[in-house]
Design goal:
By secondary structure, the chain is an all-alpha fold. It has one domain. 71% of the residues lie in helices and 0% in strands. It has 10 helices and no strands. Helix 2 crosses helix 4, helix 7 runs antiparallel to helix 8 and helix 8 runs antiparallel to helix 9. The termini are far apart. The model has no long low-confidence stretch (mean pLDDT 95).
Length: 202
C-alpha cells in the first residue's frame, strides 16, 4: 500500500503542467495552441519570453528531482528498499508524458528526465545537460540536442551506476523520449526540422 501511495504521488507531481502554469502566470498563449503545440520549455521559448521558458524548464526538471529526492529520504523510513526510488523516478516521468491534468496529453519529457537523472546520479544528469548544450551550440536544433542527450544518457548511467535498476529507468526514459520525438526524427531525416529562432516543430 505504501508503495502505491509513493507511485501515485509521484505521478501526480509529474502531471503538473509547468508550461501551462507558467504561460498563465505570464499572460502567454497556451503552449498547446502554437508552435509545436508541445507543453514544454522549448515551445514556451517560441513566445519570446525567455524567463517563462527558463522557469518552465526549472519546474519540469524540479519535479523530477524532488520526486526522487523525497523517495530517497522517505523510502527507508517506510521500510521500502532502493527499488522504490527507481519506481518513483519512472512514475514522475510518466506523469509528465501522460498527465491527468491535461487529459493524458503531456510533453516530451526531456526536462523532467534531466531532473530525474540528477536525482538518481548528479553526474549522469549533468553530463546529459552538457551533451544537450554542445549539440545545440553546433547544430542549433533543439530536438537533435534532446535526442543526442537521450541516446548517450544510458551510457553515462552505466559508467556511474553500473547495471542496476536506476540505469534501466534511464534507458526506459531515453526510449520514450525517442518515441515522443517521432515527428521530429522524420523532419530531421528530411531536413525540415526547425532551428532555434525559426518556427516549426522543435
Amino acid at each position: 500500500m505504501t508503495m502505491m501511495v509513493f507511485i501515485l504521488l509521484a505521478y501526480l507531481l509529474g502531471s503538473i503542467p509547468f508550461a501551462v502554469v507558467t504561460s498563465w502566470i505570464f499572460g502567454l498563449p497556451d503552449p498547446r495552441t502554437f508552435g509545436s503545440k508541445n507543453p514544454g520549455a522549448t515551445n514556451i521559448l517560441r513566445s519570446g519570453n525567455k524567463v517563462a521558458a527558463i522557469l518552465t524548464f526549472l519546474g519540469d526538471a524540479g519535479k523530477g528531482w524532488i520526486a526522487v529526492a523525497l523517495a530517497q529520504h522517505f523510502a527507508p523510513i517506510w521500510g521500502l528498499d532502493s527499488d522504490a526510488v527507481t519506481v518513483v523516478a519512472l512514475a514522475v516521468f510518466l506523469g509528465h508524458l501522460w498527465p491527468v491534468f491535461l487529459h493524458f496529453k503531456g510533453g516530451r519529457g526531456v526536462s523532467t528526465a534531466v531532473g530525474v537523472m540528477i536525482g538518481l546520479n548528479p553526474w549522469t544528469g549533468l553530463l546529459a545537460v552538457v551533451t544537450w548544450i554542445v549539440v545545440a551550440a553546433i547544430w542549433r536544433i533543439s530536438s537533435l540536442s534532446a535526442l543526442a542527450a537521450a541516446l548517450i544518457a544510458p551510457v553515462y548511467a552505466w559508467m556511474f551506476l553500473g547495471f542496476e535498476a536506476s540505469t534501466l529507468v534511464i534507458f526506459i526514459m531515453s526510449v520514450l523520449i525517442f518515441w515522443r520525438h517521432k515527428s521530429n526524427i522524420t523532419n530531421l531525416i528530411s531536413g525540415k526540422e526547425a532551428r532555434f529562432g525559426k518556427s516549426g516543430t522543435p
